[in-house]
Task: structure prediction
Amino acid sequence: MEHPLIGDLDQLTVDELSARVTDLNRKLAIATRGGNAYLCNQLRMAIETYQNKYQQRVQETYRQQIKDANFDDKIKIE
Result:
């Protein structure tokens, strides 16, 4: 389940998304040690939101690379 209070993530780069996931995971570890279950749930939702956007961006990049790849000189079909 994604976090409802996180706004539009379209302006963030893949590196920024990755950095935010790393930071949120660090904060989740601290909240877990502190025993704050409500905060842990909120952080997990936020992490899922950022990870979903990160995966979407990576897949878009991969699809674009495949689309732009030109294999004409690699495969000859006559």
Q: What stands out?
A: The first helix runs from residue 14 to 34. Helices lie at 14-34, 37-68. The CA atoms of residues 29 and 35 lie 10 Å apart. The two ends are 51 Å apart (CA to CA).
